[in-house]
UniProtKB/TrEMBL annotation, chain A:
[4Fe-4S] cluster 1 binds at C49, C52, C57, C73. It comes from Marinomonas arctica. The gene is rsxB. Its cofactor is [4Fe-4S] cluster. GO terms for biological process: electron transport chain. This is Ion-translocating oxidoreductase complex subunit B. Its EC number is 7.-.-.-. Keywords: 4Fe-4S, Cell inner membrane, Cell membrane, Electron transport, Iron, Iron-sulfur, Membrane, Metal-binding, Repeat, Translocase, Transport. The keyword Cytoplasm does not apply.
TrEMBL record, chain B:
This is Ion-translocating oxidoreductase complex subunit C. Part of a membrane-bound complex that couples electron transfer with translocation of ions across the membrane. It is found in: Cell inner membrane. The gene is rsxC. Residues 492-505 have a biased composition (Low complexity). [4Fe-4S] cluster 2 binds at C383, C412, C415, C418. One of its GO terms (cellular component) is plasma membrane. Gene3D superfamilies: 3.30.70.20, NADH-ubiquinone oxidoreductase 51kDa subunit (3.40.50.11540). Residues 364-393, 403-432 form the 4Fe-4S ferredoxin-type domain. One of its GO terms (molecular function) is electron transfer activity. Residues 517-570, 665-720, 751-778, 837-899 form a coiled coil. Transmembrane segments: none annotated.
Automatic annotation (TrEMBL), chain C:
The complex is composed of six subunits: RnfA, RnfB, RnfC, RnfD, RnfE and RnfG. Keywords: Cell inner membrane, Cell membrane, Electron transport, Membrane, Translocase, Transmembrane, Transmembrane helix, Transport. It comes from Marinomonas arctica. This is Ion-translocating oxidoreductase complex subunit A. The chain crosses the membrane at residues 6-26, 38-59, 71-92, 99-121, 133-154, 166-191. The keyword Transcription regulation does not apply. It is found in: Cell inner membrane; Endomembrane system. Its EC number is 7.-.-.-. The lineage of its organism: Bacteria, Pseudomonadati, Pseudomonadota, Gammaproteobacteria, Oceanospirillales.
């Protein structure tokens, strides 16, 4: 009987000691906030477009940190999903179509002769990329525009177009090679010509 | 002159040289093409900014575009001619895209502009020489197109140990530099001497491959003659010894560290072409407008080197070198290792084009299909940059950019040696290029997203600050209001403590009244708003209806206000008087009641009269009116009686003269309030008039002034109540005046609206006429009718204006009624009368117009004569009755006025 | 001194806990996808293993043995391990949030890592002293880390290589692990304790 009591007593004592240690550690190593949010936020495209259903990129980053799906960001597209998947060590999933589709990069362009100077788009722009004053023509600073679409809706005269940013010789990039061709029949080495002439 | 020590670099390959073909023929000089295409971005960095316009005439060597920032260059006209266009043209770029180009149509004279050589380059500052080189449009002609002055400036960072002239030209097929050295040996050496003067390096070495013996001999001859210190380093032929970093390694044994420039280790490298261009610019003042280019390949019958003007289309050169279109399979700009395929021969030669390779299918077969990597490691053996091509391939394939960068992908010079040796025909360089551009894109995207984030956060901070400011203001206001109220509350009981028990009752009553007034006022506002809308929309019927309602509401409010004033007054009076005389209060009450009765009866009467106007034959109504009139009279009698008795009571209670005075005071206050209201109204009218640009603005302004004066007078009177008794009469006179002004203003607005209505109707008729509708159709439409109505209304209003004394009172019942109901109950019927008169006048005018119209119709449609005649008769009857009524009304009004 | 060295060599190479004794295979296969992650896991495990072997030795020697409660060793060791793992989790969460995130489920799983309990129990059965216990635990942890890092570096390369489709993923991983185990058998002749 005594042994049983002793055993129980020892175990309780051990538990108490370890509990005290853990309690102290919990206070000593208390984590303020969630630093992972910053890292997620850094991967998002920062268009602040709200297509994910959150008012900006950071709120979505917070939502992801709290377990929301990583595929709600159309402007970032598959590349962002891949980056998020790598960061969070989860599986990369295809983009959720409910939140929009991945489009080519666009910028807003105001048809300036139609602008009535209502300043509504200026208020809508999340990155202050529209310049203008009341009753003055507005214009978009193309370099600052994130192509978020948010200014299109408020315009009372529909004078804002989303224009795709075309590829110029300066922004052009090389294509990825097709890889190992499935139809490659010239497997036998002697059939191939590797020498440049002669 | 002495032989330099030669080192070695890792890797490298030995592809077939194929240089002999293009050296068979001497240097060629193609004819002028029909147009020259000069891309604005021929160099690394910002595109140049055009200086010329379409249609401008330019001379050979004239500046046509200037630099656009630090890393940019100038551009010059390669020949004299006209600028025919500045537009997007296909350019020599692996993407096959277009870019902005200046198109020159040569005039064939090839006239030089005035050349200004820099003769004293040894005496002037180096900075000036560099600026001059920049203005001459000189860029590195080896391939990258780095602006030369920028490169030279970079070389000032560290003292130079070596100045290397790159004459290696390691790529197969290309012999342009070889030919240049042979043709322009002296110029080259002089150019090197100029550059050496600029950079002051310890050693000057020309690095040249041993497959160019003629060029080496020529150089040695010139250097020997000049007894020059410039060394010649003959390096073994190995691709890519002409790469900058590889040549540096060959000649100095030093390796340029990853991510750094040769200048960082005290070495400067320049291409031979650049040196010659520098010489030409400084000695002759010739800008960079032409270059040596190799035309070669199996598809050309006459492969050779040419000195070609920049901007010459490739097609022109192919013609010159007698190309065989049948044999031509691939057109390559640059060499077979590092060049790129051209999709079109329309692209121009630019400052960096060193070779055009027109290859046959046999010569450059299409790349074999890619196969799996067998990890043979040959690529690693061949890589001149000592990289791990296989690893880079894996990372590129699996898009692991970070790791690729970690494995120094950006040190890859894209020489193509790895692809060349790969037994699996993997296009390694393409993978690297793709990965490099993807990484660059990602970097740019990061920069952009960081910027967007910054801006978004700045905006959010700003918005938050604004919101916080607003909130703070609101809080401050909230704090201020309750404290005031508290003070008042504190003050109130103190004041109320002195008077007797009557006070609480009166305050209760006044509270109730105040609430009622507030409700009444809000209703009034609503109605006025509706009225305004109706006026704007020209709903005639609605307007009259609404006006009536407004009048009533105003009356009700006025009554309530009066009551309130009385109650408020009653409190102190009661307090003072209740010891001696409790009588006046009930009398006052009765008086008030009687007055209300009078007002109510007056309103009812008015309504009935209105109905009567619509249906003049209704006997019942007439009876009713008579009874009401009788009622009104009795009520008025009561009022006069009561007021008499009040007066007597008051005079009787001589001990309390204050009561009378306070009564006066109250009246004065009300008058003042009315005057103020009038001022406000006139101001509002003025605003409206300004908006519709009515011609009455000045008159209204005058009224405003007068009204303000009156308000001031009244306030003055209020300020010194001692004189009030004497002034009462004056004020009594003044009050209606203010009402007059008010009325006049309203009248004018009505007039303006009526005029606008007429105009609109006329316009519409005009429109209909223009649309080609005939008279009858127009007649059928409602517009002529509306026009006539509007005209009548206008006429009536104008008539009123001409008789201002009577009508001004009449036109705006609401204003006057209010005032009169307050000041003297007797005025009430007069008011109604005036109103009535106005209405009848309108009715008369309407009837007349109707008759006119009917007559017109009679003329146009004689077949309907009977029915129309009937109508006319009935209308005339109506007119007569209306006129009779009008007369009666005017008569009674005169009577009333006389009575008063 | 030689004895201590022998303990280290034995636990790291000859009697490697993963490839020879086949303990702790779960994190070995699970966290070896990325080199970065596996290094983090290796460090966490090293910390936990060393600390837990120390704590379990103390618990056994100074609490269980004096009271003759040796039969409670398993349950009290589990308690000790759980506490140490919890403690480690808190420290990692504070110092390296990303590592904490990346380790994910595997960090708490160290609790059930059989290598940890195995080391504690073997310490008792081998009657290791205080220093020997710590060294034994540390050596086991280093051996675990060693093969985990090696394996993950291999897997990273295998991931981008042209592996036949049927062998892709875990299959080629298992094969690789088997080959590694074969290779480690070669150390058997090195030293024997």
């Amino acid at each position: 009987m005594l042994t049983v009591l002793l055993a129980i007593g020892i175990l309780v004592l051990l538990s108490l000691i370890f509990g005290a240690i853990l309690g102290y550690a919990n206070v000593r190593f208390h984590v303020e906030g969630d630093p992972i949010v910053d890292q997620i936020d850094a991967l998002l495209p920062q268009t602040q477009c709200g297509q994910c259903g959150h008012p900006g990129c950071r709120p979505y980053a917070e939502a992801i940190a709290n377990g929301e799906a990583i595929n709600h960001c159309p402007p970032g597209g598959q590349a962002t999903i891949q980056a998020l998947a790598d960061l969070l060590d989860v599986e990369a999933i295809p983009l959720d179509g409910d939140h929009g589709t991945e489009t080519a990069k666009r910028v807003a362009v105001i048809r300036e002769d139609e602008c009535i100077g209502c300043t509504k788009c200026i208020q809508a722009c999340p990155v202050d990329a529209i310049l203008g004053a009341a009753k003055q023509m507005h214009t978009v600073i193309a370099d600052e525009c994130t192509g978020c679409d948010l200014c299109v809706e408020p315009c009372p005269v529909d004078c804002i177009d989303m224009v795709e940013v075309g590829v110029t010789a300066k922004t052009w990039s090389w294509d990825k090679p097709q890889g190992i061709a499935a139809t490659s029949l010239n497997i036998i080495a002697t059939d191939r010509q590797t020498e440049v002439a002669h | 002159m002495q032989a330099a020590k030669i080192f070695s670099f890792h890797g490298g390959i030995h592809p077939a040289e194929n240089k002999a073909q293009s050296l068979q023929l001497p240097l060629g000089r193609p004819s002028l093409p029909s147009e020259l295409i000069l891309p604005l971005g021929q160099h690394i960095g910002q595109s140049s900014r055009p200086l010329v316009k379409v249609g401008d005439k330019v001379l050979k060597g004239e500046t046509i575009a200037i630099n656009n920032g630090f890393l940019s260059s100038f551009l010059h006209a390669p020949t004299s001619g006209t600028i025919t266009a500045i537009e997007e043209r296909l350019i020599a770029h692996p993407s096959g895209l277009s870019d902005l180009c200046i198109i020159i149509s040569p005039d064939g004279h090839d006239t030089w502009t005035t050349l200004e050589p820099l003769h004293h380059w040894q005496d002037i500052s180096k900075t000036d020489v560099l600026a001059y080189l920049s203005e001459m449009g000189i860029i590195g002609m080896g391939g990258a197109g780095f602006p030369t002055q920028v490169k030279l400036q970079g070389a000032y960072k560290n003292p130079l140990t070596h100045f290397i002239i790159n004459a290696a030209e390691c790529e197969p097929y290309i012999t342009a530099d070889d030919m240049l050295i042979r043709e322009k040996t002296l110029e080259l050496v002089l150019g090197i001497e100029i550059l050496q003067h600029l950079v002051q390096a310890d050693h000057v070495v020309i690095g040249i491959e041993d497959n160019k013996p003629t060029a080496i001999a020529a150089l040695q001859a010139v250097l020997g003659k000049r007894n020059s210190k410039i060394q010649i380093a003959v390096v073994p032929t190995k691709y890519p010894s002409g790469g900058e970093k590889q040549l540096i390694q060959l000649l100095t044994g030093k390796e340029v560290p990853s991510g750094q420039y040769p200048a960082d280790i005290g070495i400067l490298c320049q291409n031979v072409g650049t040196c010659v261009a520098v010489h030409d610019a400084i000695t002759f003042g010739k800008p960079l407008i032409s270059r040596f280019t190799t035309l070669t390949g199996d598809a050309l019958k006459a492969p050779q080197n040419v000195e070609v003007l920049l901007g010459t289309p490739v097609a022109h050169l192919l013609d010159y070198a007698e190309s065989e279109p049948k044999k031509l399979n691939r057109l390559i700009m640059g060499g077979p290792m590092m060049g790129y395929t051209l999709n079109s021969a329309a692209v121009p030669i630019v400052k960096t084009s060193n070779c055009i390779l027109a290859a046959s299918k046999k010569e450059l077969p299409p790349p074999a299909p890619e196969q799996a990597c067998i990890r043979c490691g040959m690529c690693e053996q061949a890589c001149p940059a000592s990289l791990l091509p296989q690893q880079l391939l894996w990372f590129s394939k699996s898009q692991e950019f970070e790791k690729a960068e970690h494995h120094n992908l950006f040190d890859c010079i894209e020489c193509g040696a790895c692809s060349y040796v790969c037994p699996s025909s993997i296009p390694l360089v393409q993978y690297y290029r793709h990965t490099k551009s993807s990484i660059r894109e990602a970097r740019e995207a990061t920069v952009k997203s960081d910027l967007a984030k910054q801006r978004f956060e700045a905006r959010k901070a700003r918005q938050d600050a604004e919101a916080a400011e607003k909130e703070a203001k609101r809080l401050a206001r909230q704090k201020a209001t309750p404290s005031k109220a508290a003070e008042e509350k504190k003050a109130a009981p103190a004041n109320a403590a002195a008077p007797l028990a009557a006070a609480p009752a009166t305050t209760d009553e006044s509270k109730k009244l105040k609430v009622d007034i507030a409700i009444g006022k809000s209703k009034l506002k609503k109605l006025q708003k509706q009225l305004l809308e109706a006026q704007e929309n020209e709903h005639v019927e609605e307007i009259s209806n609404l006006q009536l309602q407004v009048t009533e509401q105003e009356k009700a409010v006025a009554l309530l206000e009066e009551q309130l004033a009385k109650t408020v007054e009653a409190a102190p009076i009661a307090a003072e008087a209740n010891a001696t005389k409790p009588a006046p209060a009930p009398v006052n009450d009765e008086l008030k009641k009687a007055k209300v009765d009078v007002a109510l009866i007056g309103v009812k009467l008015k309504k009935l009269q209105k109905q009567l106007a619509d249906t003049p034959d209704d006997q019942e109504l007439k009876d009713k009116i008579t009874t009401f009139e009788a009622d009104l009279k009795t009520a008025q009698d009561t009022v006069s009686k009561l007021s008499d008795s009040t007066q007597t009571t008051m005079s009787a209670s001589t001990t309390e003269p204050k009561t009378a005075i306070s009564d006066e005071l109250k009246k004065l206050k009300i008058d003042a309030a009315i005057a103020k209201a009038a001022v406000k109204k006139v101001e509002k009218a003025l605003k409206k008039a300004e908006e519709i640009q009515a011609p009455e603005i000045n008159a209204i302004r005058q009224q405003l002034k007068e009204a303000q004066q009156r308000a001031d007078e009244l306030e003055n009177a209020l300020a010194n109540p001692a004189t009030t008794t004497t002034k009462t009469e004056t004020i009594a006179e003044v009050a209606p005046n203010s009402v007059d002004a008010d009325a006049a203003k309203k009248r004018k607005i009505d007039l303006a609206i009526a005029k606008a209505g007429v105009k609109k109707a006329e316009k519409n008729i005009q429109l209909l006429k223009e649309q080609g509708k005939d008279e009858s159709e127009i007649e059928a439409s409602e517009w002529p009718k509306k026009l006539i109505e509007a005209q009548e209304k206008l006429a009536a209003l104008e008539a009123e204006e001409s008789t201002p004394v009577t009508t001004s009172v009449a036109t705006h019942v609401e204003g006057t009624t209010e005032a009169i109901a307050k000041s003297q109950a007797k005025a009430e019927p007069e008011m109604d009368l005036a109103n009535q008169i106005k209405k009848e006048k309108i009715a008369v005018a309407l009837a007349k117009a109707q008759i006119n119209k009917l007559n017109k119709r009679l003329e146009s449609a004689p077949e309907d004569a009977d029915s129309i005649n009937q109508e006319i008769t009935s209308t005339e009857q109506r007119l007569q009755s209306a006129e009779a009524l009008l007369e009666k009304l005017i008569h009674s009004q005169t009577n009333l006025q006389e009575n008063r | 001194m030689t004895e201590y060295l022998l303990i280290l060599v034995s636990t790291i190479l000859v009697n490697n806990f993963v490839l020879v004794q086949f303990l702790g295979l779960c994190p070995f296969m699970g966290v070896s996808g990325k080199l970065e992650t596996s290094i983090g896991m290796a460090m966490a495990t090293t910390f936990v293993l060393t600390l837990s072997s120390l704590c379990s030795y103390l618990t056994y020697t100074y609490i269980l043995q004096p009271f003759g409660l040796e039969y409670l060793q398993t349950i009290s060791f589990i308690l000790v391990i759980a506490v140490v793992v919890q403690f480690t989790e808190m420290v990692v969460h504070k110092t390296s949030p990303l590592l904490y995130r990346v380790l994910g489920i595997f960090l708490p799983l160290i609790t059930t890592n059989c290598a940890v309990l195995g080391v504690a129990l073997q310490n008792i059965s081998k009657q290791n002293g205080f220093v020997e216990s710590i060294l034994y635990g540390f050596g086991a942890a280093v051996g675990f880390s060693f093969v985990l890092v090696l394996f993950s570096a291999m897997r990273e390369r295998i991931n981008v290589a042209d592996v036949p489709t049927v062998f892709k993923g875990s299959a080629i991983g298992m094969i690789t692990a088997g080959l590694m185990a074969l290779a480690f058998m070669g150390f058997t002749a090195l030293v024997q304790i």
